[in-house]
Design a protein that fits this description.
Layout (H helix, E strand, L loop, with lengths): L2 H16 L3 E9 L2 E9 L2 E9 L14 H15 L6 E9 L8 E7 L2
Parallel strand pairs: 3-4
Antiparallel strand pairs: 1-2, 2-3, 4-5
């Protein structure tokens, strides 16, 4: 991961903590993909994707969360949940066009599984 990507994830993890979520894991990897941030929001597990796009020539951060990317996130989340107690979960996307906490667009429950 590049330095800007790491800083974007740091910024988003801090934002989630300030909002009262407990960050459980960062960059959780499995054979099906990677989940940037896994957090607990009360009784709900949150699987979060962080997208930084500072150049919109190839589409913005939101456009980079394609159907294929969503499918990989869902598959990885299912593997994470395997063998754990049943829990409600949601998929959040945190969009950045700059490394600025004031400009993060946090889409809670951005897509269903």
């Amino acid at each position: 991961m590049n330095c800007a990507g790491r800083r974007a994830e740091d910024l988003c993890a801090d934002l989630m903590r300030r909002a009262g979520l407990e960050v459980l894991a960062r960059n959780w990897r499995c054979r099906l993909g990677e989940i940037d941030l896994i957090a607990r929001d009360g009784a709900t597990l949150v699987f979060a994707e962080v997208r930084l796009r500072r150049d919109a020539r190839f589409g913005g951060a939101a456009e980079s969360v394609t159907a294929a990317k969503r499918a990989r996130l869902v598959a990885a989340a299912q593997l994470y949940l395997a063998g754990r107690p049943a829990a409600d979960c949601r998929f959040d996307v945190l969009l950045l066009d700059a490394l600025d906490a004031e400009r993060v667009q946090w889409l809670r429950n951005a897509f269903g599984a």
